Amino acid sequence: MLAVANDIDVLEGCRSNSRQAQRLLYEQFYDFAMKIAMRYARDEMDAADIMSHAFVKIFKAIHSFDPQKGNLHGWIKRIVVNEGLDHIKSRERFSENVELETVAEPPVNNHALEQMGADEIMQLIAKLPPATHAVFVLYAVEGYNHREIAEKLGISEGTSKWHLSEARKTLQQQLAHTR
Amino acid sequence: MNQKAPYELTITEKLGQLQVPDMRDAIWSRIETQLDLDMPEQNDGPEDPNGPDAGKWKATAWKLGPIAVLVAVITIFFIQQKSKKQTHSTTPSTEQTTTPNPANNNGPPPGNKQQPGPLQPNHIPVNRNDSAFTTPVKPILADTTAGVHVRLKDPEPQLQHQVQAPPAVSQQKTDSTVKKSRGVKGISDKDYHITLKKDSIP
Q: Which of A36, A162, B162, B170 has the fewest CB within 10 Å, making it most exposed?
């Protein structure tokens, strides 16, 4: 593991297109970005695709990042999340389905979830349909609301709510099977 | 930020504990390959500071620059020559100024291409005192009835090829009463007829 360099020097080096600086930044944010990428991936290969595309975008757009306007973690996270969503969209076009005004709240067995490992939960989420997967991760994990999700995915709020309801139903059914 | 349900909090916590696969080198090699294609790294060492490709581009620019200039000059030259030829072919009656005529002492010098009247500036004006022309050329645009008539029998050798055009035009004019739109608007075939006066013949 390379030593963590001074952030400002690394940023300047990345802006100068220095491979050494880019490698340092990549190593520094690998774990952070990989965890995000895995939420939107079906498996490790998908996650690797998301990571490689995301970091290429990061290095191409590094000159537009202003440290005084935001922190680097948040900026990188946004790029990785967007790349993850693009990856999901490439598998399936997000279409308008049934719209919901209110979200159904099927009970999800939290006790069962607590007994499961992170890998198992990851696999449960990855089995969701692409659009449902994206909405669930954005809502339940990333903390976006339905309006923000609708803007990101180009769907309506009602559709976003419908997908969240579907995700909860599916997870509950799968948790019931694993008991 | 929306309020999370208990199970969502559990999921978030568990995903935070997720073991990240060690694919650093494999992923970096893909990133580096793509960056080398999209954003080649510039070397700052003793080599070409702008990179090997920059030197190649400079050499190419040095080679292509003079060639491009030369091509442009030649193209402009040919275009000018072509435009001059077109002017000669469209206004055959106006090309006599280039022919020196020792008998002409009263008129403007042969090299003088000035001609009164509303002729187009790019037309070569008629030398009024040339032996082939005895009457002053009236403004073609203004008066289509009176013109100068060329006598085909005594053309200057240099003018022969130029004088050949008017007869064809005049013949066409006599053959058909219907005018076809050609040449300069406002100019009819009658304008190309040039008559020689007796006084002008040496």
A: B170
Name the H helices within chain A. Answer: 7-15, 19-39, 44-61, 72-91, 110-115, 118-126, 130-136, 146-153, 157-178
Does B6 contact A at CB distance below 8 Å? Answer: yes
Looking at the complex, does the CB of residue A38 fall below 8 Å from at least one CB of chain B?
Answer: yes
Measure Cα distances from A32 to A27, A39, A116, B52, B167 in Å.
Answer: 10, 12, 22, 36, 92
Q: How many helices (H) and strands (E) does chain B have?
A: 5, 0
Q: Is A17 left (phi over 0), alpha (psi -120 to 50) or beta?
A: left
Is B14 in Cβ contact with A140 (below 8 Å)? Answer: no
Task: Please give the average pLDDT of every successive group of 10 residues along chain B, which has 202 residues.
Answer: 76 86 95 93 57 57 77 88 75 49 47 46 47 48 48 48 49 55 70 65 53
- What's the pTM? 0.56
CA distance A122 to A163: 18
- Interatomic CA distance for residues A141 and B8, integer angstroms: 7
- Flag if B11 and A140 touch (Cβ within 8 Å): yes
Token readout for B158 is 């240099």
pLDDT per residue as tens digits for the range B155-173: 444 444 444 445 554 444 4
Q: B2 to chain A, minimum CA–CA distance in Å?
A: 6
Q: Which residue of A has its CA nearest to B34?
A: A56
Measured between CB atoms, which of B2, B17, B26 is closest to A118? B17
Taking each helix axis as running N to C, give the angle between helix B6-16 and helix A118-126, from 0 to 180 degrees, rounded to the nearest 10: 110
| Amino acid residing at A105 | E
Place of tokens 């004088």: B163
